[in-house]
């Protein structure tokens, strides 16, 4: 509201773009973290200790796709059950 008041329509657009960038950055960081943990800490340590860089990169890409699909499915399922951020806030006691 302040950005709109100070900068008009441009302020609204700037806030929307910044919100979009923050959400995408958070999702990207989460995907990279999960894929790195799975590729290096699980795959390379326990499954294939002699894995080269290309193989680890392939595993990392597969994990990103699978994790994204699972999280997308989870979000659709939670939405279908009526669990949203309002439920989370109520569950936290606020």
Describe it for me?
This protein has helices at 2-7, 9-47, 53-81, 85-91. The protein is mainly α. The two termini are 24 Å apart.
Radius of gyration, taken over Cα atoms and rounded to an integer in Å = 19 Å
Query: SSE order in H/E notation?
Result: HHHH
Name the poorly predicted regions: none
Task: Name the quaternary structure.
Answer: single chain
Instruction: State the helix count.
Output: 4
What is the first-to-last residue Cα distance? 24 Å
Q: Structural class of the helix and strand makeup?
A: mainly alpha
Topology:
Layout (H helix, E strand, L loop, with lengths): L1 H6 L1 H39 L5 H29 L3 H7 L3
Helix pairs in contact: 2-3
Quick rundown:
With 94 residues, the chain is mainly alpha-helical. It has helices at 2-7, 9-47, 53-81, 85-91. It is 86% helix and 0% strand.
């Amino acid at each position: 509201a302040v950005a709109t008041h100070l900068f008009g329509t441009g302020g609204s657009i700037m806030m929307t773009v910044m919100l979009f960038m923050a959400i995408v950055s958070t999702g990207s960081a989460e995907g990279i973290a999960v894929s790195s943990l799975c590729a290096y800490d699980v795959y390379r340590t326990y499954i294939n200790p002699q894995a080269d860089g290309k193989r680890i990169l392939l595993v990392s890409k597969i994990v990103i796709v699978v994790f994204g699909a699972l999280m997308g499915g989870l979000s659709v399922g939670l939405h279908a059950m009526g669990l949203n951020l309002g439920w989370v806030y109520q569950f936290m006691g606020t």
